[in-house]
Amino acid sequence: MKRFFYLFSTLTLLWAASCGGSDTPIYLDDSKPIEKRVEDALARMTFDEKIAMIHAQSKFSSPGVPRLGIPEVWCTDGPHGIREEVLWDEWRGAQWTNDHCMAFPALTCLAATWDTSMSAMYGKAIGEEARYRNKNVLLGPGVNIYRTPFNGRNFEYMGEDPYLASKMVVPYVQGVQKNGVASCVKHYALNNQEFKRHDVNVSLSDRALYEIYLPAFKAAVQEGGAWSIMGAYNLYQNQHCCHNKRLLVDILRDEWKFDGVVVSDWGGVEDTAEALNNGLDLEFGTWTDGLAQNSGGSDAYDNYYMANPLKQYIAEGKGDAKLVDEKVRNILRLIFRTTMDRQRPYGSFATEEHAEVSRTIAENGIVLLKNDNNVLPIAPESVKKILVVGENADYKMTKGGGSSSLKVKYEIKPLEALVALYGAEKIQYMKGYSHREKDEVESLEELRKAAAEADAVIFFGGLNKRSHQDCEGRDRQDFALPYGQDAVIEALCEANPRTAVVVISGNAVAMPWVEKANSIVQGWYLGSEAGNAFANILSGKVNPSGKLPFTYYAALEDCGAHYHGESSYPGIVDPQTPEGSLRPRYQQTYAEDIFVGYRWADKFDRKPTFPFGHGLSYTTFEYGDVTLDKDSMRKSGKIVASVEVRNTGSVYGGEIVQLYIGDDESSVERPVRELKGFAKVFLNPGESKVVEFEIDRSALSYFDAEKHDWRAEKGAFTAYVGSSSRNLHSKAHFSLK
Ligand code: BGC
To answer: Residue whose CA is closest, atom 8 of ligand 1?
Structure first.
């Protein structure tokens, strides 16, 4: 049999060479269409070579076909910078000295810019870094929806709204892929928490699936043209998402026509038959220690579900070898699009240009939540002494958090940058609270005294990348800020009204002191340039222009996922865990259905501390009334909505103008209104611009689960324009006939 294969492939090789009329085999000839090259390469491969290609050979790579000169696939995390080189079989760093990357801001920050040009810059720059480091698959971006502020990985995602995440993910993917590096969008799908992430079986309505949880993945695939996607750890319909028929075959391949590679999450494969049949292409990370655990003395990669066990399964006549060909086709296509694209650029690494990109995105994503009495900005000439308090001022945030942890060329901490900007003589630092209980910190009395003596106070707190905070693998356990920060904040605000509270996190936190703090800033994990971005915003060198990509709930119960109790979050042990499961299963129902984030807050009129889409500026903007050009509907099938926005303050600034649509006459329950357009405009004092939005049928539709299709119903709709989901300045009515 084996001999037959070799004979066959040698003959095909000879045939290919003679037909081409040149010595270049078709698969190596880049003047030929990719699909032809794929078929040609496939025809030359032995069955063993195919099996080798569909599972890992090391922690982050899979083999190509050495005999044919087809290169290996090399993946890298993602999504905020290029991960350090690790040892062949382990998560441990390989101690290279040339892999210190540029860290870009966390994706929550990118989402908070509400600016697709920032996504394009981000994708291009991180793609260049991946390319330079010879990776052809970047494991990112992540677009799982922010369902609960407890999810330890929300900082790696793009917020609670499917429309915002869809718009932001597309340019990121395109930017990465311009470098001949595949973007691997993750974690498909319904991976909305870390608690029991391998074992939780998510149940939800088809409407919630299609309206809330799938759109960003669909946009990444269809508009972004993503060349790969990563399956999620959790289960849906009692099947792990890495080999889930409905998600991978029915939706991804059949409905969306995805032609890229489905990569498993690391250790996300649990069954050979399902892996073969249900759309997985490439298995990674199944055993944590490739050479030892479960290896029986041999190379453990041979024991991966899609290695020897799959060969045996097929040899026993249980599985169809054609499905292996399908997987290999997808992987070959990815290799031709990336490593074997001779035109692809060479990339660049940790450059000044990338630092600039990183800082610009950070500055554009920081959100000014509150600023009574113009506490901010703190102009350098207006102060003699600033008291800076909080461990997060003097703490590096690019490390930790799980797989997105980075080994960086540098990271500027907030305190360093403030000292550089204001001068060391003006800055007094007190730790105030500590990430570790054993550390000694100043008493509240000492803090109060120092605060009262300072001209201004800046508190840096929030969460960090430790376990049970913003960190992969575990969820948060408390909505409140950790380490007694609330008391410190209250003491500072009482002692000095000119106190700005900066929260660094990837999640909303409880703010029992919200009325006492005059100024509050939502900062994110901002990457290498974090400190500079903060200093520029706080000093007024840069005017803040970010807006929240998620709702800041006043109380945890105001979040739909938590309102319904444990069966909705975090899920409950399934007494009937199916036989053969490796661990007990958890069942979880997304009981809030489509009412995620502001959709829930609006439905029950729960006033959030800060609503979705909220963010202030050092200037002010005035909105005109929204007008609709209904003629455009007749001509183009789209309504054009316009609104004039003017900068009425005294400094240059950016405003994110938001369009929400409400369906006023509907046969099904719909959210009060949903985001269907946004535009970021930058204006000089006194300047105004007219912002236009196109409203098409997709903006009016809901997912009709019975018909399995999107449906825009006849009747009345309202278009709202505002500066947040709750601060709506004007509205206009129209109807669909
Ligand atoms: C994470 C992925 C990551 C992979 C490789 C997994 O644990 O869920 O997001 O890309 O590890 O590090």
So the answer is: 265
